[in-house]
Amino acid sequence: MNQFSLKHFIVRSQALALYRDVMRTVMKIEDQDYRKEIREWARSEFHRNRSLRDLGEIRTQVALGRRSLNELKLAMQMAS
Amino acid sequence: MLKTILRHGCRLRSVVNMRFSAPLCNNIHTLTPSNVQANGQIWPHVFVSRRTRMIDQFVKDAGQMRTSPPLTPRDIESRVLRICNEYDKIQEANKNKITLVTHFMNDLGLDSLDHVEIIVALENEFGFEIPDADYDKLYTVQNVVDYLIKKMNVTDRSKTTVSSAPDPRYDDHHH
């Protein structure tokens, strides 16, 4: 019996969508060193939380990630 | 003496520096007040209007680089393989063994996050966004190549649009 429910599947897709948006934004960073730094940071954040199984916790982390991504986009806009 | 000035005038420094600025080079044959005041200095019309071989060559090269060569399936394959090989999370042992049948997760031991990174790198390489729903179809290199071929309408017959004939606009004997 699969322990993961449909809700898990949906939440997982949301997390992957967030990762996708983060990576697309990271690709737009001009400075190679800064790009590497941000990418490593994003990877470590996602990998740190990969074993979470509680839906509430996962959703919270995804929301925090979204907020961080918006801050990053804002910072990039102001820098250019 | 005037002939010497006319012939060598443009080899003076300021005009040579103009070759590094592409917009200025594109306009070099049309004289406007803004052209003449290049690099913050005012040059007499006659100096700016003389084409030199260096600037001609630069513009000719730029013109030929403007059109990118048409894609063939083999181009797409090699570019996809190159992107996969450049991905830093792949073990050294697997790096040069990537083929068309390689499966990202089963053969290279990557997880879903790495898969996202690779596809985003491909989006960046080929210059268009792959919709989220299509990510699930792209788990092997062969699938990726076929998908890209379909999306970019690449045909087998490569019609060369870049010919070796020189661009008549920048022909040398127009001096």
UniProtKB/TrEMBL annotation, chain A:
Coiled-coil boundaries: none
Primary site of residence: mitochondrion
Location in the cell: Mitochondrion
Domain Complex 1 LYR protein: 14-71
GO cellular component term, pick one: mitochondrion
Keyword Transit peptide: yes
Classification via PANTHER family: LYR MOTIF-CONTAINING PROTEIN 2
Family designation: Belongs to the complex I LYR family.
Protein name: LYR motif-containing protein 2
Organism (species): Adineta ricciae
Automatic annotation (TrEMBL), chain B:
Pathway: Lipid metabolism; fatty acid biosynthesis
GO molecular function (one): acyl carrier activity
Keyword Lipid metabolism belongs to the record: yes
Domain Carrier stretches: 74-152
Source domain of life: Eukaryota
Signal peptide start-end: none
InterPro entries per UniProt: ACP, ACP-like_sf, PP-bd_ACP
Gene Ontology cellular component terms for the protein in this record: mitochondrion
Subcellular compartments: Mitochondrion
Pfam families attached to this UniProt entry: PP-binding
Keyword terms, alphabetized: Electron transport, Fatty acid biosynthesis, Fatty acid metabolism, Lipid biosynthesis, Lipid metabolism, Mitochondrion, Phosphopantetheine, Phosphoprotein, Transit peptide, Transport
Entry similarity comment: Belongs to the acyl carrier protein (ACP) family.
Stated role: Carrier of the growing fatty acid chain in fatty acid biosynthesis.
Protein name: Acyl carrier protein
Taxonomy of the source species: Eukaryota, Metazoa, Spiralia, Gnathifera, Rotifera
